[in-house]
Design brief:
This protein has 362 residues and is an alpha+beta fold. The chain is built from 14 helices and ten strands. Strands 3, 4, 5 and 10 form a four-stranded antiparallel beta sheet that branches.
Length: 362
């Protein structure tokens, strides 16, 4: 398995297990043994063409994968990649050409085909997790149905407040109607509830969390949006910077000197102080601020000039529930290992309508 997407609305966990799905194209179903694996003994029944207003694309026992579900995730995935490419400078015309370009010189598949295959892997994994969740007692409860309706109501309210029609906006974004998505969403929430229970079941000690923090400090600080507070005085020359640094080290306050000497227009807002997390400032400014200790001073050179620095404060893991979030970061990869194991052991053989599958595109 290469991908695992749980609800394009929310949780995304990437898996890299070696298991592959084996599927049949002859319309046969397979019975399920007590441990949940396929016995490969054909039973009575053929491919079910539809369920309510949804079209069945594939199934395993009572677990259906719907055409609309695949179309939705295909559109979401392709739109996300398109937005990224456009942000990187690709124009609309070149984007259309990109989809038809070769993505893999070995197989010769295009980027359009790659997106199709990746999304199908995701959908198969979601269906497998739904089967496992239901077999463990998780189900679409009235509470989940209410949560699903609230999500749709919130979406409609936000879109309407912006002056757009929610139905048209959603269809343009996802390629299916809100009504169709309302039939799919409860199943996604069941999977999400199951996965979150796996994450919650992982026991992480504070010592493990602190070790993880020390080993991955930069990534964690970025993920948790931990803030530092630094006062800087921007000047043109190193000589000016060294003179001001000497005054700081002699006891003068950075907040007193900044309004007088700093050439940064933002100095008027908070006496030269900035409160920021990783990724918000130029690298030189950020690197010094996150490596310094409270009370440290120094000089940093950037594209803007010379910054005379004073680190005023920094958030700790005890601030803003950071420790709780850190323990979640540690728990997630451990839960992913369990998810990978579960998926490998399941090895479900879905009956797939390949003609319909291959006809779906974006």
């Amino acid at each position: 398995m290469k991908f695992l997407t749980i609800a394009a609305l929310a949780l995304l966990i990437a898996c890299g297990t070696a298991n592959e799905y084996e599927s049949t194209n002859n319309g046969e179903e397979y019975s399920i043994s007590e441990n949940g694996t396929a016995t490969n003994e054909p039973i009575v029944g053929t491919f079910t063409p539809a369920a309510g207003s949804l079209t069945v694309l594939a199934h395993y026992g009572d677990i259906n994968i719907y055409e609309e579900e695949f179309q939705y995730l295909l559109n979401i995935r392709s739109a996300a990649e398109a937005n990224f490419l456009l942000q990187m400078g690709l124009d609309e015309e070149s984007l259309e050409d990109f989809w038809e370009d070769e993505a893999d010189p070995v197989t010769g598949i295009t980027h359009r085909q790659r997106i199709h295959e990746e999304t199908w892997e995701e959908v198969l994994e979601m269906a497998t997790l739904r089967y496992i969740a239901l077999s463990r007692g998780y189900e679409v409860t009235p509470e989940l149905e209410l949560e699903a309706q609230r999500n749709l109501d919130d979406f409609a309210e936000i879109v309407s407040a912006g002056g757009d029609d929610p139905e048209e906006h959603f269809y343009e974004m996802a390629g299916i109607s809100l009504g169709t998505f309302s039939l799919i969403q409860p199943n996604i929430l069941v999977i999400n509830e199951f996965l979150m229970s796996l994450v919650d079941s992982v026991e992480v000690t504070e010592a493990q969390a602190l070790q993880y923090f020390e080993e991955n400090r930069e990534t964690v600080e970025r993920d948790l949006q931990m803030l530092v507070s630094a006062v800087h005085i921007l000047v043109d020359t190193r000589e000016e910077a060294e003179e001001l640094l000497a005054r700081l080290n002699a006891g003068e306050r950075a907040r007193d000197l900044a309004p007088i000497y700093s050439q940064d227009p933002g100095v008027v807002q908070d006496e030269g102080a900035y409160h920021f997390s990783r990724g918000e400032m130029v690298p030189e400014f950020e690197d010094w601020s996150f490596s310094a200790n409270i009370g440290d001073t120094g000089i940093v050179e950037s594209q803007f000039g010379y910054h005379v620095m004073y680190l005023e404060g920094r958030e700790t893991l005890q601030d803003s529930n950071h420790m709780e979030h850190l323990m979640m970061l540690v728990a997630e990869p451990l839960a992913m290992e369990e998810i990978e194991r579960i998926l490998e052991e399941a090895n479900l053989n879905f009956v797939i309508n390949y003609d319909l599958l291959n006809s779906i595109s974006f």
